[in-house]
């Protein structure tokens, strides 16, 4: 039996899943970290994702050493990771991650990158291999499903790629970690959603000291 297609993201109270990008090109490269625009982006990104940083699972997955917090946030992060058999992401997310991920990228599954260019697969230590798919989001998902087997496929991001899959009717479920922060601008998760095609069924609403975890099943309207 095939698994589900889902996404899970952190989102600000005003609906953004990423801050406004800096005007600096290649802003994650080491020489540009002190640019004011970059420092603003890093601060806002840290506020949005702050619920994850102290977790034991986060530290384990990025090989940051022992320790870290237990509790429900940690359990949800681990449960999300353990259900994934393959990931799909957009080219922009890959380009940013290629600059910033450690050598052992934190996916540990096949990752299918939706792109318009050809590139040979890129294998990383720890079980992550990036495959570059240049014939559309459906093709990338089909390949991810095949790789995942009976496990789930996660649409990892960014926001525009997630929205393409939602509007195509290809997402079964999603979870939002609603963070108590206002960004004011950036990438809105549902900016341009085809609401006429989508009906949401609440599955879970679970608060923690840092965020509120909201899970919805997605159905055609």
From TrEMBL:
GO molecular function, one term: 5-amino-6-(5-phosphoribosylamino)uracil reductase activity
Domain of life: Bacteria
Family annotation (Gene3D superfamilies): Dihydrofolate Reductase, subunit A
Bacterial bifunctional deaminase-reductase C-terminal domain span: 4-210
Any one GO BP annotation for this protein: riboflavin biosynthetic process
Segment forming the signal sequence: none
InterPro entries recorded: DHFR-like_dom_sf, RibDG_C, Riboflavin_Biosynth_HTPR
Pfam family, one: RibD_C
PANTHER family documented for this protein: BIFUNCTIONAL DEAMINASE-REDUCTASE DOMAIN PROTEIN, DIHYDROFOLATE REDUCTASE FAMILY PROTEIN (AFU_ORTHOLOGUE AFUA_8G06820)
Protein name per Swiss-Prot or TrEMBL: Dihydrofolate reductase
């Amino acid at each position: 039996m095939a698994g589900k297609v889902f996404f899970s993201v952190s989102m600000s109270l005003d609906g953004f899943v990423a801050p406004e990008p800096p005007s600096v090109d290649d802003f994650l490269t080491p020489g540009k970290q002190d640019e004011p625009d970059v420092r603003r982006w890093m601060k806002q990104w840290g506020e949005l994702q702050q619920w994850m940083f102290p977790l034991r699972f986060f530290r384990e997955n990025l090989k940051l050493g022992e320790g870290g917090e237990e509790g429900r946030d940690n359990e949800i992060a681990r449960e999300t990771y353990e259900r994934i058999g393959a990931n799909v992401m957009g080219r922009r997310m890959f380009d940013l991650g290629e600059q910033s991920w450690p050598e052992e990228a934190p996916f540990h599954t096949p990752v299918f990158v939706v792109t318009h260019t050809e590139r040979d697969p890129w294998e990383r230590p720890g079980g992550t291999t990036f495959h570059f798919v240049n014939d559309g989001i459906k093709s990338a998902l089909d390949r991810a499903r095949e790789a995942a087997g009976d496990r789930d496929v996660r649409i990892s991001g960014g926001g525009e790629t997630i929205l393409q899959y939602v509007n195509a009717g290809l997402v079964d479920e999603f979870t939002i970690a609603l963070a108590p922060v206002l960004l004011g601008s950036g990438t809105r998760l549902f900016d341009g959603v085809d609401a006429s095609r989508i009906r949401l069924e609440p599955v879970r609403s679970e608060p923690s000291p840092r965020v509120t975890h909201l899970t919805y099943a997605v159905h055609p309207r």
